[in-house]
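ARCHIVE RECORD
Type: protein–small molecule complex
Small molecule: phosphoric acid mono(formamide)ester
Source of inputs: curated submission
Record status: active
Notes field left blank by submitter.
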Amino acid sequence: MKHLLKLGDLSTDEILGILSLADQLKYEKKHGIAHPRLAGKTLGMIFTKSSTRTRVSFEVGMYQLGGSALFLSNRDIQLGRGEPIKDTARVLSRYCDGIMIRTFAQADVEDLAKYGSIPIINGLTDYAHPCQVLADLQTIREYKHTLKGLKFCFVGDGNNMANSLIVGCLKVGMDVAIACPDAYRPDAEIVKWAYSTSRFTMTPDIPTAAKDADVLYTDVWASMGQEEEAAIRRQAFAGYQINDAVMAVAKPDAMVLHCLPAHREEEITEKVFEAHANEIFDEAENRLHAQKAVLVKVMGR
Ligand code: CP
Ligand code: NVA
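STRUCTURE (tokenized, with ligand):
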């Protein structure tokens, strides 16, 4: 595995291999076993959007692996003043051993990989959030002890999270149901591929999608970069919320996940969020372990 640009590029075995290594690295961390698999290596981290989890987990993760990480804010590096991504790629390739990037266009992530000569990791674009979904799958497997055959239901915007969850969950053998307004469907090509698996459904009707779900998932109504659409989106997504009524149609032992940050009383009620806080914060923790596995896979040796 050379890069992590999107989950569609990975085979099922590659995804499961990352999850196994993530479990192993989590075990080593919990038991105080040093694991300097990336000693002497440096990760450049380009951010053109805000971040709490992604920034901190990658930085801490590199440190725990014996390497180091550089926080490169768009406000500080020349990229933010118009230096082309293809030049940035070639320069950083001379200093760093890998680049993690969070930005708007998926094309920028693909271009970094095209023009650079070091591994590139997608830390979120408008199209995908593969690192989050690897942590989500690790968390689901911890709680449910399996992935294959589980019913996964996403409620809300057909955004980067929905796109990556559809691909990741279907690739590991889960059934996926999406509840979203017709005007806010996930990426058309991903949806087309998803239907071809015969384990995918999409509907505007939340109870239909959530019925007998093992895992319920939601995300904000307005993503980073969509702040100006917030008012219109609040109307479009009214009712697209994980609440007691949705929990009542899911399996009694259904788990609830959220990539965070969460907007309480919008996509999820405070009550449901707090009832499932253990799962949600284990999920946040697993960003660290899953990403360390990705880092070792692409930057190791
Ligand atoms: N879930 C997630 O990616 O969080 P941050 O935006 O804080 O990195
Ligand atoms: N869909 C959200 C995810 C944040 C982790 C966003 O892009 O802002």
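CURATOR ANNOTATION: The first strand starts at residue 42 and ends at 47.
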